[in-house]
Amino acid sequence: MELAMPKVSGTYPLYEYVDILNRAFHDASPSNASYNNQVAQHTSIGSKAFALQFGASFAGLTEDELSAKILGNLGVLPNTGLQTAVKEYLVSVGKANVGIVALQLGDILSRLEDATGDMAVYKAAAVAWNAELEASFAYSVNPANVVSSPAGPLGDFGKTVSLTSGDDAITSAQTTPWGDTILAPLNGTLSSTDAIDGGFGIDTLKATLAADVVVAPMLKSVEKVLITAGAGVEFSATGATGLTDLKVDAAAGPATFSGVGLATTVGIQNSGPGGALTVKFAGTGGPADSAQVVFADAMGNDEIIVADIETLNVNSAAGTLAAITTNQARITAAQAEKIVIGGGQALTTTVTGGKVAVVDASAIFRAKLDLTLAGTQGVSIALNSQAAHKVTLGAGADTVSIIGLAGLSAQNMDLSTAATLAASAIEVIGFVSGTDRVQLASASIAAKAAPGSSELASIAASSSLLAAATLAATTAGANKAIAFRYGADTYILVNDGAAALGENDSLVKLAGVTALADASWTSV
To answer: DSSP code of 222?
Structure first.
């Protein structure tokens, strides 16, 4: 009997056939290497042939056993009626087609999250099944997973290993391939005489260190290290191989990371009392060294000090504390020429560096940046228009470039009141007309409007910022940008394709600027 192939349409459609078959037959997920081979074979011979071949290895089971295996792994048993129906279906189509039947059943179940009527009983199973497929994909595409997952629900398969106050020697024989946690929760349990081999998987060392100690353990295949540090702690990574992520966690004061490889991301999380984290990278000295730092739940007392790095990439990330919606941390980078800021969490920061020439924050995703420049001598700053950013300029001639204004990706302006409109503006502080420049790029290619002096005077005399912006929009017209003064500040309104003021327009505030030279701003 010729069976039709289901049209699987999950998050990862090219690979979901492979995920369904592995979970339906084995209730497990293959290693990364095995998964890549299966995907390549699936691509080579086609979905139908692959499914038939996959199911052929179960030819020794009866139709009833196959029905029980597949439905059990799909999470819909006990259900005597369903199990019997699938058994009879296999008898009808021939169990040589069991691979296709497994795909059909997995596909049907994946579509029942919003089922109604008689099929509503499968809603919970559908949710769990789709989550299982997502987790299976994530497991198998991770190169660190060199063996198949254990049968059963996907989760944290690793073990926890605790260090002692003595000299610990942890070998890969004492760990698992699925990501282990090595704990040194007490002062003195992590020392320079410890040697830890995490083996396969993404392994994490969590250590608490007393104040004013220097610790340099030998670490092999321990990918993540979290240090809860007393004041004055120094953690040396000179003996670490395979370290990708090194963070200070809830520091009680200043701390130092030394001997850190350039491929290791360094960060501050759950900062608590906080303090300055000085990072000494190894392997620097070239003309274009680059490093990565991350903030997560940084609470305002934090500073990261980095030397000998020309390009510093900063990721502002969400942490585990729901109450912390904005990271607050200072960045000091004496040799940095370029600072790149990204991530999806709001960030308040002061960047200090006499050589900083570029700050690129165009990739921060729908999160507000409050940036202050200190000790700089002329910086080009790139911003997107996805949030009401605030930038305080430094000395020298600065250029602020803002992209995506008055477009679908721009933050909507809140026109409810003058106050909400003001809060929607991107604000530039310390702007000096004739010295600094602002460059505006809009989705609608907004050319500069040329209002007359009487029109500008009427806008300036408006009763509120909302009234002024409303009049400025109609004065400028569609797809135009207009600079106008209101109160003690100058504003630039970028209009979209409609002449009237709307939420899709964008507003830039140049705080304290009472007169803006025409050469100090451009709009394209």
So the answer is: -
Give the pLDDT of residue 326: 95
Identify which of 426, 334, 342, 351 has the alpha carbon closest to the alpha carbon of residue 394.
351
Taking the CB of residue 172, how many other CB atoms lie within 10 A of it? 17
- DSSP, collapsed to helix, strand or coil, labels residue 505 as coil
Type and span of the H or E element at 454: helix 453-460
- Find where tokens 């100058």 sit: 490
Looking at residue 15, its pLDDT comes to 60
Q: Which of 314, 416, 301, 420 is nearest to 367 (CA)?
A: 314
Point out the residues of the chain with pLDDT beneath 70: 1-15, 156, 272
Dihedral angle sign, alpha carbons of residues 334, 338, 343, 344: positive
Contacts of 471 (CB under 8 A, 6+ apart): 458, 459, 462
CA angle 18, 23, 27 (to 5 degrees): 150
Please report the pLDDT score of residue 457 as a whole number: 98
Give the per-residue pLDDT at 122: 93
In angstroms, the Cα distances linking 348 to 341, 405, 511 are 11, 22, 18
At 6 the pLDDT is: 60
CA distance 291 to 265: 7
**Rounded (5°) CA angle 241-246-251:** 140
